[in-house]
Write a structure and sequence with these properties.
The protein contains 8 helices and 13 strands. The chain is an alpha/beta fold. 45% of the residues are buried. Bound molecules: NADP nicotinamide-adenine-dinucleotide phosphate.
């Protein structure tokens, strides 16, 4: 079997998980290089990885570069993404820098693998909250055409990065002991709280924060359906791993709850957990550490025709980032898209 040289850029929460998932899924690795800002050795699950400072030339000779650096002008993707493509690498980027770029397919492999065919070297993983939502919506869209989605998210602090996990751990100890919360990652204390703000306000969608705008625009791009109406309220909750979403979805054709349950049960990568009488539904404590998207509380909206309510949970670092990135690489190999 052919093996591939892989570069992993960034070794924070997502980069670490990429290294773990590559091993778990037995990705056919010939060699692994880990790049970050500073040189050191990192040990993950007993395996030592030598981390070297990122540079454009570090990508020469690799088939895949999985990017998990921070976003923006000083982040790895903007500095090295297209440089790696120039050096012959397929770049799979977890960040937001190029998701809405027309040159860049935005892919959830169970939903729109065909978008990979026209790739120009750089492929983007959607925002974590979008990945799990479109995975749950796609089977319903194919069967009954979605008209409108209204979603409220309950997002784990790990979605902000390693420093936010540390901040919640610190507040869990400090606040009950009477010490100040001293929030750094969020505008308010997250321990014992719920913060209806993820990212910052943007002019393009007045009143919406950045994460909400990502869910709106990315959903339309992935489903190739610019006409779908999407509204989102994204909320940070004091959970470590696993995003939860309450999704209200209106379709052109009526789907009963039983039909939706059947469609979702058969969909790849989806696990239906839906026995509300026995208090069985997806929860972040159960989804953390797993690669699937969990859906439950599937019911017909009692006050609006052709509309369903769903509850959807996934591990934001796995399916929302690392696992989805590796599944894209696996799909490209399967489709014969790697030179
Ligand atoms: N957390 C999530 O749920 C999630 C989900 C989907 C997508 N993402 C995206 O995935 C990316 C990584 O997120 P994370 O949570 O893993 O962040 P993180 O824990 O803050 O780690 C960031 C990593 O990026 C490295 N880095 C930053 N700038 C770099 C540069 N210019 N060159 C090379 N390496 C650089 C850092 O290097 P040093 O260690 O040397 O400082 C660090 O290892 C972000 O773009 C994020 O938006 C995150």
């Amino acid at each position: 079997m052919r093996k591939y040289s892989v570069v992993v850029v960034g070794i924070g929460l997502v980069g670490t998980r990429i290294l773990q998932v590559l091993r778990e899924r037995k990705f056919p690795v010939k060699s692994i290089k880990v790049l970050a800002r500073s040189a050191r050795t990192e040990t993950i699950d007993g395996v030592d990885y030598e981390v070297v400072p990122a540079s454009a030339d570090a990508f020469a000779g690799a088939e895949f570069a999985l990017f998990a650096g921070t976003e923006g002008a000083k982040g790895a993707s903007q500095l090295y993404g297209w440089e790696a493509v120039k050096r012959g690498c397929i770049v799979i980027d977890n960040g937001d820098d190029f998701r809405m770029d027309d040159r860049v397919p935005l892919v959830v492999p169970e939903v729109n693998p065909e978008a990979l065919r026209n790739h120009q070297g750089l492929i983007a993983v959607p925002n974590c909250s979008t990945v799990q939502m479109v995975a749950a919506l796609a089977p319903l869209h194919r069967a009954a055409r979605i008209r409108r989605v209204v979603v409220t998210t309950f997002q784990a602090v790990s979605g902000t990065g390693g420093a936010a996990v540390t901040e919640l751990e610190r507040q869990v100890a400090d606040v009950p002991a009477g010490k100040p919360a001293n929030p750094q990652q969020y505008p308010h204390q997250i321990f014992g709280n719920v913060i209806p703000q993820i990212s910052t306000l943007k002019d393009i969608f007045p009143g919406y924060y950045g994460e909400e705008i990502k869910m709106i625009r990315e959903t339309r791009k992935i489903l190739s359906a610019p006409e779908i109406a999407v509204s989102a309220t994204c909320v940070r909750v004091p959970v470590y791993f696993g995003h939860s979403e309450a999704i209200n979805v209106e379709t052109e054709k009526k789907l009963t709850a039983a039909q939706a349950r059947e469609l979702l049960s058969k969909a790849p990568g989806i696990v239906v957990v839906d026995d509300p009488a026995k208090s069985r539904y997806p929860m972040p404590l159960d989804a953390a550490g797993k690669d699937e998207v969990f859906v439950g509380r599937i019911r017909e909206d009692s006050c609006h025709a052709n509309t369903l309510d769903l509850w959807c949970v996934a591990d934001n670092i796995r399916k929302g980032a690392a696992t989805n990135a590796i599944q894209i690489a696996e799909k490209m190999i399967e489709m014969g898209l790697v030179k």
